[in-house]
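User: For my dataset I need records formatted as: sequence, then structure tokens, nothing else. Please produce one.
Assistant:
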Amino acid sequence: MTVSKKETNISDAKKNSSGESPRRALHLGYMYWSNGTHPAGWRYPGAEHSRAFDVDHFVGLAQRAEAAKFDFFFFGDRLATGAEYGYTNTSVIARLEPFTTAAYLATLTKTIGIVVTANPTYYEPFNLARLTASLDHVTKGRASWNVVTGADPRAAQNYSRLEHGDANFRYDRAEEFIDLVRSLWDSWEDDAFIRNKETGEFVDGSKIHAVNHDGKTFQVKGPLNVARSPQGHPVILHAGSSERSRQFAAREADVAFAGVATLTQGRQYATEIRCRATESGRDPDEISILPGLTPLVGATLAEAREIYDELNSLTILDEDVRFGGREPSAWTRGAEGLHGSSEGVPLGYRNLGSLSQRLGLDVTEESIDAVVPLEIEGRLAPAGSQLVITATQRTGRTVGLNLTWRDVLYTYVVGGHVVVGGPTEIADYIESWHAAGAADGFIIQSAFLDEQFDAFIDLVVPELRRRGLFRSEYEGSTFREHLGLTRPQSRFTLDQGIEVSS
């Protein structure tokens, strides 16, 4: 069924900042990282760092996000762990199971969407369909499933598997999986329950459908043993940047969690996803494209940069900051290193040798606190040039004047999509992406808690509202309504040629 996104679903964002033309709604989600996203965030003075299993903590954050009218509160997940995350992302070392956590949160919130992460590589479709449909009932139409295929091969060892499978295997499985889950969600028509006490008819059997799926990977008869949920289909969210991931998002997702960090990348990604959606027979406005973003907020730009510098000063670099304890030749053999993942670079790569690979220029003979010279311009690889530009933007320091190799190395180590500024600068950044069609909004993450979470809500959200960009009230009660999406009709009634109004 084709559904259409409303031109906007926020009463105070009908016009742009010049008051002239209608625009797409700006959406904001919040992704919960118990210790924040900066690798040293938990060390920042006053930061919360030991509340990953304190339900009162995440409930309080979700309630604040709901009061600020965020579209959703997002729980990630990971099916394998290790001590190495202590240097890159302490939030993922150990965490609560998402469905249990979301069900509890549902009882203490009323309107905000709740996103849970579940990996079809390690679930069965019937169980996952049952869990998500049940969560949609429990939340009264606020559930969302973040579909991930998993990048950590160690997960297989926790699920009695011999191997994790390559990306094609996992996406082949996920594509069959999600189509089967949608059929199970639809296996009860909305009016299947009669409950006629006089006649004794409890259900209309003609409106309960066996799925009878016999596919490459799964064989499921059905029907599901949960009635069709308030949203019909819980919202589907998907993240990823690979070829298969982009195709999956364009065909299946209501929200594409984009892993892009520059406006040019954002525009390219958004254009590609919307074109692919059209090729798949979808209305491209069905999909909300939401990059992840860590806004490092201060009352002023100068204060934000001071916070950023202090966070970086708490980041552990390799003891041998030139070569990471390796032979110098290890960094000149063409190995690519990690190049700054969204969760930061681990120990062993936090050195000038690894940085040199990213820059495309050997800087291992430089003092780490030396100023980056003007002479490097034109000598850097494209990725290296972008890294220096990003370091300049975050710190406010200039090549040839006061930007140091340490600043550039910290930018490489921290990685991710980070913007540093006061409320005006952060709002400018968000508005520029939105106006350019590079994003329908952002999935906000905090460098550390709770100060940065509060700063975004208290300082940036009011500025976005002042510009007419973000809602002051919810206009619906379900997550699909927050996104401006209609409720999908059951595929079984569509197959019978029955039109059902949403």
